[in-house]
Amino acid sequence: MPFKLLGSRTNPSKPFSEIYFSLIAWLFLALIPILAWANVPGGGTGTGPNVTVTNNGGNVILANGIVSFTIDTANGNITNFTYNGVNLLTGGHGGSGGYFYFDGSGGPTLTNPVYTLTVNPANNGGNQAEVWLQSTGSPMDAGIYYDLLRGQQGIYDTFILTHEASYPAYAGAELRSNMYVGSIFDWLCVDPYRFRQMASPTDTSIPVPGAPKEVYQWTSGIYSGYTECKYSYSDPLGNLNVWGWASTTTPYGIWQIVPSHEYYDGGPMHRELTEHIGNTLLNMFGGGHYGFGLSQTIPAGTLASKTFGPAFIYVNQYTGPTTNISGQAQALWADANSQAQAEQSAWPYVWFHPQPITGMTTSAYPQATGRGSVSGTFAINDPYDSTASPVSMWIGLAPADGGVDFQQQYFTYQFWVKTTAGGSFVIPNVLPGTYNLWAFGPGDAGTFEQSNITVTAGQTLNLGTVTWTPNRIGPTVWQIGYPDRNSNKFNNGEHDVIPYSGVLPPYAGGSPYNTPTDWGAFMDYANQYPNGVSFLVGSSNYATDWNYCQPTVLSSSGAYVGTTSKIYFNLPTAPSAAQTARLYIAFASVDYAACIITINGVIQTEPVVVSTDGINAITVTNPTTGFYPDNQNFDCIERLGSNGAWGDAYMDFPGSKLKSGLNEIDITMRPTGTAGITNGFEYDYLRLELTGYQTPSPTPTNTISIPPTLTPTWTLTASPTPSSSPTSTPSLTPTRTLTASPTPSSSPTSTPSLTPTRTLTASPTPSSSPTSTPSLTPTWTLTASPTPP
């Protein structure tokens, strides 16, 4: 079967989740002849021996003839996880033995818990067992539930935190579960971009001078000489339904499956860690690595409880040919994705009934009859863009929570979906309460909010047509990118990972960004853009000519200094003094940086309106030293993420500051505080509007809401296995060629100092590659040939 490209990050009309599941469907269908998974909730076939519970005093063993789990009742840890007679934790955690645990990272912990067998299989015909471990005390009561059902291939885990009214204020903390999986697992699977064989946990490494402590350089093994960082495998959680590990030496896979996203804080773009070397399998219920969920304080006198889960740790086995280890990992991953769909279809689980919370009248986990649904049709009324599409927008419910931006909510439940054809949406299984309805995405810039959406148990609430009129003043003169709260659409975004082609890059990051000297893509900025970014509207391509971030660079004196990005564009006539222009910038993240705007050589000091939600905007002063975006101080660049907590800003100025012919707008990033290597911006979207602007013919720029310019084509050809590859490398070596030929629709009256013609050739398998590399290494050529101005 020839491989066809199913989706690309340059097309925001096709959301990541759709791309993933299109890909997974292709893989799974291709493998049906050799695989036979049922993908019912819980995995397996739903049938099998009785569930049993064995209490040995200090530990309890749950088993069902397929899997068994040993639980330490002193701390709630799972210390043995056996599938088909194999302990999948053996050799984990540096060889001492893996285990599963919950971690408050300075917050609540399970201290001297009380053990209870809340569901005894002896009382239900051997169908289910449930263990409850409860710790009570300030600052938070903590409870852990483990559930095992007949025929199940894994374990359900649930974490319930309760702040009693008598407790003092609680400032919040990172919350997560983690499993140190066994040493047999060596193929990491996060998404189509982070999917590869990993170094061995026993390989040696050294620190990288000048880099954060999380960055290190391998000194042995298949990646000897390359660098590694756990942040390379972070992702927005709203896009993920499963992540985990496969084994190249055994037929097993182990997976963190998300049955529901309702218990994650910060909305669907909340980026967090997933897994990394050390063989971790994380589930970050709450974390601030990228600036989300930071409004954490629960005041004294407040009774509040939140249920994190049930989540599902799933295990599976590959039974087909083992000559292709990459294909084996793909098959296991495809099944895990199908299992995630099965789990989500069963949410909320009818078998989970946690113990009542003292003082609360509602269940800690309401069943379907105790929830409601909200539906409607989302519409965009943009008077300056008739093509604005309401499709593939994130739309969701988050509690009003005292006016806190949904990105910063910590102890709330949120419910998000993507709009479908025509902008229709259905948000199921919503807990009763009063919410704000939010929406954002590629259809238009900014954020939609509608308050006072009340959901009651058993209710089906249809909102009809919900219309968003974006905040605009005039037609678009030009735009760069599209608004999706992510910088990965731009050059080096997501660190030059390539779209999934059936094979994967040999290491995360891509050459040369994982070498000791350039452990992050931003570090090569000075070499790529020695004079800063120069972007010629109508000729430049945002995917190749606008960088995802604007960082600091080293000066000749060794100090970190700011950088400037320049935007050149033509106007057919000079705007009048009566016209108003608006420069709009959406920042995917900001870290200790001020923004200075210069128009045609003059620094601007007009006030700037900033926000993190597009609604609750404030006007800030704009001195010659620059204004501060509202989403400040999240070190997303250093942590190798393409997005953090989002914010936007716009500045209105007299149109007479623009002129006929070639104009120049400069955006200068000034590092603030202690200037460091990762101060700077990550960009989401930029736009210039002008009242009374008449689009000339031909238009000076692409004004389509979604303007990708690369149309990839794929060919899959067979070639002999290279001699430098391991013996397990399959024999297919795909070659891909991408050709883009954007044609500018206008020419400037003068040419700035940039070269709009760009040819880039990358070969991810250099001669210096390690002698043992993961299977199937693609080679590709990217050629962009815009007509010169």
How far the N terminus sits from the C terminus, by CA atoms, comes to 43 Å
**Uncertain residue segments:** 1-36, 496-510, 698-789
Major sheet summary line: 9 strands, antiparallel
What is the average of the pLDDT values?
A: 82
**In DSSP terms, counting alpha (H) and pi (I) runs of 4 or more, how many helices?**
4
Could you characterize what this model shows?
This protein has 789 residues and is mainly β. Strands 7-8-9-10-23-19-18-12-13 form a nine-stranded antiparallel beta sheet. The model is unreliable at 1-36, 496-510 and 698-789 (pLDDT under 50).
Question: Nutshell version of this structure?
Answer:
With 789 residues, the chain is mostly beta strands. The chain contains 4 helices and 48 strands.
Describe the protein's topology.
Layout: H1 16-31, E1 52-55, E2 59-63, E3 67-72, E4 78-83, E5 86-87, E6 100-103, E7 114-119, E8 128-135, E9 141-149, E10 154-163, E11 175-180, E12 187-191, E13 194-197, E14 205-207, E15 215-218, E16 227-229, E17 235-236, E18 242-246, E19 252-257, E20 271-272, E21 275-276, E22 280-286, E23 304-317, H2 325-345, E24 372-380, E25 394-399, E26 415-418, E27 424-430, E28 433-441, E29 444-455, E30 460-468, E31 476-481, H3 525-528, E32 534-536, H4 542-545, E33 549-551, E34 553-554, E35 560-561, E36 563-571, E37 580-591, E38 593-599, E39 602-603, E40 608-611, E41 618-620, E42 647-654, E43 661-671, E44 680-690, E45 711-715, E46 735-740, E47 758-762, E48 779-784
Parallel strand pairs: 24-30, 32-36, 46-48
Antiparallel strand pairs: 1-2, 2-3, 3-4, 4-5, 6-11, 7-8, 8-9, 9-10, 10-23, 11-22, 12-13, 12-18, 14-15, 15-16, 17-20, 18-19, 19-23, 21-22, 24-27, 25-26, 25-28, 28-29, 31-44, 33-44, 34-35, 36-43, 37-42, 37-44, 38-39, 38-43, 40-41, 40-42, 45-46, 47-48
